[in-house]
């Protein structure tokens, strides 16, 4: 699975809540045998990939 959400503020830095949510989504995915391979944060002009940042 791939999760995507936006940051309307424009700040692409993941919050602690973003990081914790990613951990919970990965755990749920493992339980359901649905691997979570990516979490992306978008703003109006750019994105941050948790996988590219080695946060997965």
Automatic annotation (TrEMBL):
Kindly list the biological process annotations in GO that this record carries. proteolysis
GO molecular function annotation: metal ion binding; metallopeptidase activity
InterPro entries from the UniProt entry: MPN, RadC_JAB, UPF0758, UPF0758_CS
Which Gene3D superfamilies does the protein's record reference? Cytidine Deaminase, domain 2
Keyword check for Endoplasmic reticulum:
no
Q: Which UniProt keywords apply?
A: Hydrolase, Metal-binding, Metalloprotease, Protease, Zinc
Q: Which Pfam family is one of this chain's hits?
A: RadC
What range(s) does the MPN domain occupy?
1-56
**Which intervals of the chain form a coiled coil?**
none
Name the UniProt record assigns to this protein: DNA repair protein RadC
């Amino acid at each position: 699975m791939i999760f995507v959400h936006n940051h309307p503020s424009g700040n692409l830095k993941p919050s602690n809540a973003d990081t914790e949510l990613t951990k919970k989504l990965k755990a749920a995915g493992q339980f359901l045998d649905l691997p979570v391979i990516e979490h992306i944060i978008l703003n109006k002009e750019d994105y941050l990939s948790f996988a590219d940042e080695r946060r997965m």
